[in-house]
Each structure stands twice: as structure tokens, then as C-alpha cells.
Amino acid sequence: MKIAVLGGDGFVGWPTSLHLSDLGHEVHIIDNLSRRWIDTELGVQSLTPMDSIQERTRIWKQETGNKIHFHLIDIASDYEVFKKWLAEARPDAIIHFAEQRAAPYSMKSDRHKNYTVSNNVNATHHLLNAMVELDLDAHLVHLGTMGVYGYSTVGAAIPEGYLPVGIETMDGETVSQEILYPANPGSIYHMTKCLDQLLFQFYAKNDGLRITDLHQGIVWGTHTEQTRRHEQLINRFDYDGDYGTVLNRFLIQAAIDYPLTVHGTGGQTRAFIHIQDSVRCIELALKNPPAKGDRVKVFNQMTETHRVRDLAELISKMTGAKIAWLPNPRKEAPENDLVVRNDQFLELGLEPITLAEGLLSEVVDVAKKYAYRVDRSRVPAISAWTKEIAKEVEKDPEHPRLRSVS
Ligand code: NAD
Ligand code: USQ
After folding, report:
1. From the CB of 210, is ligand 1 less than 6 Å away?
2. Where is each NAD-dependent epimerase/dehydratase domain found (predicted)?
3. Which of 143, 191, 209, 314 has the fewest Cβ atoms within 10 angstroms?
4. Could you tell me the residue ranges of all domains in the chain?
5. Contact assessment for residue 33 and residue 9, using Cβ atoms and an 8 Å cutoff
């Protein structure tokens, strides 16, 4: 297949591009490199030394003989350029990763909120709009988030996208319907993913676009089979307070002897998936497209759930790292349970990689190898969800340093 990977220079997009190229697909990465610019804005860099996208694709060609094409396009602001590219390339499938994906970055200031909404919503809408205009019957696979559901405990498993409901009619009868699970975003970033869901629902219904939305949990790890093949194919690894995600942050913190930064009581339960499973799930989704006229196909792309403090305790036991209990900069439930259905990927043959000491220590080894690149002052997460929380967090005499260490 000819596959366009929008956002293919990113943390999940790059290993996905390599995986698909390895399977023999013709891969075209489209990226505006905004993630690299945001590193510059924040004064941080990936833990791992990443080469330019041109250099990365050159090494891939040298190692495998396969060409990955790169096109520098901003799909949120260069609509005409993007449409022209789609019109000429006419890909069979499009994987859409190209959004601003960090919740803390999306909550930093009014400017960051505006940027996240306009970038993410325009990116998704431009893609859908252009596909209709060009009669492009490509299978669109979007990377969404578990965060569209919220993380509240209702005592029931979260279904894959749709919730069966009974509605009482005016005659007093009950009719059954399946509706999109009620959206309950916890940040501006997560809200844009909820808006994406509605855009998909409309374009599938109105124009018959074939769309799969993958509600993905937190991705951890760094290597995949292909990124291991050459030092210069290495994946990016974010550890800073805005882009680093919790488990990867704890692993790098353990490696540099920095107390593990647990927010609040660490009672938040979240869904997780290893990067190798993430790329495999995308392959499975590509092989199983919906038919024209079908509703949006939704998969929960996660393999296990964990409570944040349990992860911290596990890593602390494994590495001897201390745990720091910090004021939570986010507005989120201090404790929640989370049970998630993921039957569809399991039925399609996914064999989940679960949190095993071997894999965790492999990431700690990567972190130790590149520890010299870490700026410890960029580790604290200081982006606050509300002005009130910002005041509370700033009141802490040791802000942004650590408050209590156990
Ligand atoms: P990332 O920030 O590393 O990659 C996103 C890529 O998209 C970057 O290379 C960026 O330059 C590009 N991009 C952003 N806006 C663009 C635009 N307007 N035009 C062209 N390119 C643009 O993020 P990631 O971690 O690889 O996540 C990829 C997708 O998966 C995101 O949509 C994210 O919401 C979703 N996701 C990620 C995780 C995770 O834990 N990393 C979990 C669940 C879902
Ligand atoms: N947390 C800590 N300490 C830290 C960092 C985070 O306790 O140092 C806590 C947070 O308060 C939160 C939880 O860990 O309760 C998860 O935070 P995170 O930054 O790992 O994940 P999140 O903000 O939800 O976002 C990440 C990705 C996003 C994706 C989402 C999937 O950045 O793109 O959509 O995971 S999910 O969480 O399932 O919605």
C-alpha cells in the first residue's frame, strides 16, 4: 500500500513509519517538524540524540534498501499545499498522528491553548475536507486517546467507543441506541481529541469516509525492532515536565537518581501500551478497515492499567530510587479505578507486551546511556491546570523543586 504518515517524525510516528516500510509498504512522512520547534521553545531536547528526518530516512535506505519519503507540510495551516500533495499522491491509507499531544503544554497559557485547539482541530478537519473534495477513498487511521472517556470510576468497563443506551420514548417505551461514549476531557489537548471524534462521526455519516479511531493509552518504552537496527534510527524520548509521560519519566528519573515525581497521592489509574505494541496495533487496524458507509471503527489501543503510585513503587523497588510526593499541578480526581475493554485487538491477534522488569530495566539502561544529555531543571512539571492551582503549586516554598522525599 501507499501510506501517508502524518506526524511521522514524532515519538509514535517514526517507529510506525519504519515498521510499515519494513513490511514493504510505500511510506510517505508528512510533518511540519513543529515538535522539534517546541523543544527549542521549551529549551529541552529528546533524551536520545535524534538526527534530522532527512538523515534518519537516509540511514533507513542504507540499512534496508527501502525509501521513506519526507514532505515538509503543515497540515493545519497549509491547506492548499496539503490538498495538492494528496491529489497527486492519492495514498491508499493515511495515518494521522499530526497533533500537539501534550496535556501540560496545552495548559501552559492562553497562547498554548489557542495553538493546541487551532493546530489539532484544523489538522483533522483539513484532512477530512480534502479527502471528500478529492474523492479520496483512503482508509484514515487516527491516533486518539483514552482520555476522551475521562478516567472516572463508574463501576463498569469502558467499552470500545460506543455505549449502548436505552432512551424512553414519548409512548413510554424504551428504545436502544449506541452512542459515542460521553466525552469527558481533562485538558485542552484531550478536548481537541473529543472534537476530532465528532468530526469523524460527521464525515463518516455524511460522506462515507472510512475511518478508524484508535483510543490509545500512555505509550511507554523507546525501542522497536526497527529502531534498534542502527544508532541513527533511534526513537525520540521525552522526559521533561511537559512532554515526558509518566512511566518514561519515572524510568529516566530512576536512571539519573532524581526522586520519582508522583503527583498528589499517585492514586490516578491510567491505561498503558508499549511502543512496540502500539506500532503493531496500527498494522492490525490498517489490515481491518471499515467498509464505506460504516460508522467510525473505534479500538481501545491499550494493554494494561496501572495506578501511578504502584508504578513509582515498582520502579523504586527495582532501582532504589526515592519517591517525591508533589502537589498535583493538574485538576484531576486524586483516585480513580479504570477497567478498559480491548477485545478487538486481542481477537485480531495482538499478544500484549506487559510491564516486565526486563523491559523496564532496558529503558533505564537507555536512560543511563544518555543521562549526560538530561537537564535536571527541566524535569519538574510546573504547567498548572487553573490559576488557583498555579497559586497553590507556587506557594510551595520549594517550587519547582521537590517538596517531600520518602
Ligand atoms: P509527537 O509530538 O512526538 O509527534 C507528533 C508529530 O506531529 C510531530 O512530529 C509534529 O511535528 C507533527 N505535527 C504536529 N502538528 C502538525 C501539523 N500541523 N502539520 C504537520 N505535522 C504536525 O507525538 P506522539 O507521542 O508521537 O503522538 C502521536 C499521536 O498519538 C498524537 O496525536 C497523540 O495524541 C497520540 N497519542 C500519543 C500517546 C503517547 O503516549 N505518546 C498516547 C496516546 C495517543
Ligand atoms: N503524573 C505524575 N507524575 C509525573 C507525570 C505525570 O504523577 O511526573 C501523573 C499525571 O498527574 C496523570 C498521569 O500521571 O495523572 C498521566 O500523565 P501523563 O503525562 O503520563 O499522561 P497524559 O497527560 O494523560 O498524556 C499522555 C500523552 C497523550 C495521550 C495520553 C493517553 O501525552 O498524548 O493522549 O497520555 S491517556 O492518558 O490514556 O489519555
Report:
1. no
2. 3-292
3. 314
4. 2-252+271-305+337-355
5. yes
- Which of 116, 195, 245 most suits a substitution to test ligand 2, by most atoms within 8 Å of the C-beta? 245
Average pLDDT of the chain? 95
**CB neighbours of residue 54 within 10 Å:** 9
Contact 72 CB / ligand 1 (< 6 Å): no
| Given 189, 203, 243, 370, the catalytic residue | 189
Q: Pairing mode, if any, of strands 2-6 and 93-96?
A: parallel
Alpha-carbon span 340 to 145, nearest angstrom? 13
CA of 106 from ligand 1 middle (Å) equals 13
- Tell me phi and psi for residue 298, to 5 degrees: -115, 130
Whether the predicted model's global pTM rises above the 0.90 cut? yes
Q: Are 49 and 234 in contact (CB under 8 A)?
A: yes
Q: Which ligand is nearest to the CA of 312?
A: 2
One-character DSSP codes across 72-115? E--TTT-HHHHHHHHHHH--SEEEE--S---HHHHTS-HHHHHH
- Per the model's pLDDT, the better-predicted residue between 364 and 265 turns out to be 265
At 281, list the grid cell: 496495533
**Ligand nearest the Cα atom of residue 335:** 2
CATH fold, domain 2-252+271-305+337-355, is Rossmann fold (3.40.50)
Kindly state the average pLDDT of the residues 335-363.
91
The one-letter amino acid code at 201 reads Q
